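> Could you send the Membrane protein prediction when you get a chance?

Sure thing. Input:
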Amino acid sequence: MFGEIARFVLNTVFTLFGAALLLRAWMQFVRMPPYNPVSNAVMQATNWLVLPLRKILPATKSVDLASIIAAFIAALVFLILMVLLAGVDAAGLPVLLPTLLLVAVITVIKWALNLIIWMTILMALLSWLNPQSPAMPLLYQLTAPFLEPLRRILPRMGGIDLSPILLFVIVQVLLMIVTRLAVTMTTFGI
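Output:
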């Protein structure tokens, strides 16, 4: 029982932190203003890891490589802790390292896909419940790179925008593929 609780807590903490790191990179990609409360909270939560990396990996106008590498590092630490919780001897970690590196990349992709799903769901719900919410412009700016191409393909039906549903389905299928890939690559099931 302790192992299940520990795995749940680790998964929750690292998924939220990984999502914050990826959200930071995503906000820079869409050029979100840094003075809004969401940007400020994400920056404060991730500065301790991103700022030291930024000295080595400077940011460009559109790609925050330091945040992406930080997410990879977080995923690798998460996987190592999960392997240790599964009972693998620490001396056996060097043998697992190549697999762990690849699964860490897959884990970052899973975090990114989950982030897209949650942002899309949140935007769709707010557009129905409170379209005048101050969060709507932020969510629209974050989801626009994914929804705009779908809006060109999928016409509005009776004034209803179905592109969030299509995006949700596409991302969910990708998430299933990525999760299956991660599970087949490991014996400890991420």
